[in-house]
Specification:
Elements lengths: L5 E5 L4 E5 L2 E6 L3 E5 L5 E4 L10 E9 L3 E8 L2 E7 L14 E3 L3 E2 L1
Antiparallel strand pairs: 1-4, 2-3, 2-10, 4-5, 5-9, 6-7, 7-8, 8-9
């Protein structure tokens, strides 16, 4: 059996999220979350996200390692963004940070 691990660390990369011709987020303060069996994910502080472009979704999911996630949608992309408002203590750093499926890093 493979041990499941999650690490969260400050990213040393510039992170940008674009959708179509709009920049949704841009940050030098993203957190990099690495999780066994999952792609690396960048969690971006809300101050660096165009939250005015996001609409709350009724979707929620549960991760046994991170907790319960809430989602937001774009006009043409349902549930494109998620966050953990009350994450498990092991990943408390990601609290309220937003995560997107597609990001650019430099």
């Amino acid at each position: 059996m493979t041990l499941h691990r999650i690490t969260v660390e400050p990213s040393d990369r510039h992170v940008r999220v674009r959708h179509g011709d709009q920049t949704l987020a841009e940050s030098d303060e993203a957190l990099l979350l690495r999780e066994t069996g999952c792609p690396d994910r960048y969690y971006i502080p809300p101050k660096d996200v165009r939250t005015d472009l996001l609409a709350p979704s009724a979707t929620t999911t549960h991760c046994p390692y991170k907790g319960d996630a809430s989602y937001w949608s774009l006009p043409d992309a349902a549930d494109a963004v998620w966050a953990y408002p009350d994450p498990k203590p092991e990943v408390r750093e990601i609290k309220d940070h937003l995560c997107f499926y597609e990001v650019e890093v430099s």
